[in-house]
Design goal:
Elements lengths: L1 H33 L4 H28 L24 H11 L2 E3 L11 E8 L8 E7 L2 E5 L9 E5 L3 E7 L14 E9 L2 E4 L6 H4 L1
Antiparallel strand pairs: 1-2, 2-3, 3-4, 5-6, 6-7, 7-8
């Protein structure tokens, strides 16, 4: 009887131990199958990349804001009374013919420089008996473009000239003074080709000052 009881107890202990081992093995397997990389690490990397992208975007925006377009300054000047455009005059002889056709006699055809882009020829009114009443006639590549002023001056002198500039001298007269004795000095005005137009870089004296 005692032997039977001991055997039954031994069998019960063995079954309990087996059940305990089975339970432990099942728990270890469950942990291994459900393990995964921590979610917190992935979230941190995403946050870092997002921060870097925002910083790069902010730098680009700041650079674009600080960029300022370069401005250009265009010189302006009063444009003299150039009103006509004609066929090309051939050399000094052709320019002199243009001047004569307008009732003026060329003063000195050697002042006309055919090799320049801007050319000039001063003429005196053909009806003048004292040599007064003069105008400067301008040409661009041989094409007549007009005179220095609308009304003639008592005298006009070519002081200097280059490829695209001509400087004229105007003796000035005080009101009431005789033309033979100018006492107002002399005004110098440079005419220049500027953006396709001929402009006076200084103020042209008025008709009363020039006569």
């Amino acid at each position: 009887m005692r032997r039977t009881v001991l055997r039954a107890a031994s069998i019960s202990l063995a079954l309990a131990a087996a059940a305990l081992l089975a339970a432990c093995g099942s728990s270890t397997k469950t942990v291994t199958e459900t393990s995964a990389p921590p979610v917190a690490q992935t979230t941190g990397a995403t946050t870092t990349r997002s921060t870097q992208t925002q910083a790069t975007s902010a730098q680009t925006t700041q650079t674009q804001t600080q960029t300022t377009p370069t401005s250009t300054t265009t010189r302006t000047a009063p444009e003299p009374a150039f009103t006509e455009h004609e066929a090309k005059a051939e050399g000094a002889g052709g320019a002199a013919a243009v001047v004569r056709a307008r009732g003026y006699t060329p003063n000195d055809t050697s002042e006309y420089h055919s090799n320049q882009t801007l050319q000039v020829l001063v003429g005196t009114q053909a009806s003048s008996s004292d040599g007064y009443g003069q105008q400067a006639f301008f040409f661009v590549d041989g094409h007549y473009v007009g005179t220095d002023t609308k009304l003639p001056s008592a005298k006009v002198k070519v002081l200097d000239q280059g490829d695209t500039e001509v400087t004229l001298g105007y003796p000035l007269y005080r009101h009431g003074d005789a033309l033979s004795d100018p006492s107002g000095g002399e005004a110098h005005v440079t005419f220049q080709l500027n953006n396709g137009k001929l402009v006076a870089l200084q103020t042209i004296p008025s008709a009363s000052e020039r006569n």
